[in-house]
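Many introductory courses stop at the sequence. We go one step further.
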Amino acid sequence: MFYLVLGLILFIGAHSLRELRLREPVVNRLGEGAYKGAYSLVALAGLLLIVWGKSASPFIMIYEPRYDLRDITHFAMLPAFILFVAGNVPGSHLRSTIRNPMLLGTFIWAAAHLWANGDLASLLLFGSIGAWAGVKFITMTLAGSGLAVKPSLAWDAVTVTAGFIGYGLVTVYHGQLFGIGLNFA
């Protein structure tokens, strides 16, 4: 579990520099290019440690999720995928109306997985990522100002289509990707 926690600290820490008011001093000291390189390496190292740490963590049950309500997770994941994609499509209406739809999608993803997983490693992973995404979403929303790109229905179609495709692929290959198959029975 050590590597999971270390990965979460690195990943969330790198993504929280702006809120901690540390981004500008680091950029001023390293320069923009070096900062982006270091940021990318730290975030990637954190992500790799999270994946490795989660897979190597012992299964310690904290609470028993309700099996008969597991479909809530499946239904929540579709808008999470669409919002996640919208965070990367500057011309979508979601991106122009929601300050950072990717963070909102990440929060929904984390909450949905907390609903379906009651073990300690999952609580650490989804709880900390969900809390970070929720706090960052609120702080960015309060900071205001979205993108100046004019949204279009074409980009909305791309956003929704890519969200559906991502949802479908992860649903079909969830077992191969994460070791836990999805059961819709």
